[in-house]
């Protein structure tokens, strides 16, 4: 909403309310930052999330107070350029619908599906920003109507940036959601992955086209003439198609980084919308999300030893049902084991390291793994958990799953802290992890994941791998660990297999 008012008496009650709004915004910003700092550790993450949520509630309340105050000032009449129309019924309806659509999925979504929920919610944010840009274009008759409270430059520039980035984020996040939810047809995914270079070239054309339209609209606004609404629609479509073409060719192994990147883009688009609307809260919140998301994206890319451009323009992996591995990745012989043998190996070990992956999440085996670890600890075995930065489908996915099963935070070890332990470990049990344990990343220069830091599982004296089959991981490549001399495979659903191991441990 573009509302233009003349300056009011600095000592009027309405101006005092403006001071209150500013104070509430500052309080909200402080809670945003303090809450975000709590997300740096599992023990403080829940509290940090609540603190940030309270901050957002205060920001929303302050914005509503601001809207009410501007309406009251306009109603005072005298000399104001424009009287805003505030439809409180629409505002209330939007809040109710948002709550009704947001809370149920957050409560009912299982932790295994949390990555796709994050992608979907992130996309909604980007789509909202794109719609705000569209509405500003319509309300100002193609950026041609401005008053002294809303100069042309910030509104135009902010709206156009928000339109491009928000549209890319929205459509890209929908594709990320459909990939993670596995509702995108595999044939479509493989087609885009196989023709990645073609669509990368198309993205360059779309980017140039989007920028050209944005420049045209900016020039039109500078000249004081409005443009047809089809120009902004064309801009949103071009950016949206670019969002589709950016994410569709990216392989599944890169999805954790992609989700983080899209999250950062949504934050930046929200900040741009804040500039257009002259809303300080939106600018600050958007920049916090954009900055933190950018930092996380960079950390995730480093964890894979890849640059962000390499991920966006040179991805690997076509999905969970990629080409199946042979009898063993390095030509060795795969040795199957039983729950009884696995239980005996672990029961008489000094140290066992559990390596969780997405297979653990799909099978919802975290509680069973915790029970197995408790039985081992009761027998004097030290149990630790090795967490790779990109295990699962989003940053921290494995940490959250294990914490849900009451695994002690101190037992969860990051890759750099645990890798030196494998050579002193009797048994490493890999549950649903694949690419993050693949020795080819360290030993095979021809491997697509060569150079990616991995968990040194192959250095353990004995390795037990729990998998449904010999199919490859999300990167779609073979894992020579499966055929190594010290590795045995326990085939089957992870939760069922761990349950069988538990029964054997109880019998020992």
From TrEMBL:
Q: Which SUPFAM superfamilies match?
A: DHS-like NAD/FAD-binding domain (SSF52467)
**Keywords attached to this entry:** Cell inner membrane, Cell membrane, Membrane, NAD, NADP, Translocase, Transmembrane, Transmembrane helix
Is this entry keyworded Membrane? yes
Reaction(s) catalysed (UniProt annotation)? NAD(+) + NADPH + H(+)(in) = NADH + NADP(+) + H(+)(out)
Limits of the NADP transhydrogenase beta-like domain? 22-503
Q: Could you list the residue ranges that cross the membrane?
A: 17-36, 48-68, 88-107, 119-135, 155-177, 198-217, 229-250, 257-276, 282-301
Concerning its family, UniProt says: Belongs to the PNT beta subunit family.
Q: Name one GO molecular function term.
A: proton-translocating NAD(P)+ transhydrogenase activity
Functionally, this protein is described as follows: The transhydrogenation between NADH and NADP is coupled to respiration and ATP hydrolysis and functions as a proton pump across the membrane.
Say which species the protein is native to.
Williamsia herbipolensis
Question: What EC number(s) has UniProt assigned to this enzyme?
Answer: 7.1.1.1
> Coiled-coil intervals in this record?
none
The places in or outside the cell where this protein is found are: Cell inner membrane
Query: In what way does this protein cross or attach to the membrane?
Result: Multi-pass membrane protein
Q: What is this protein called?
A: NAD(P) transhydrogenase subunit beta
* Gene Ontology CC terms: plasma membrane
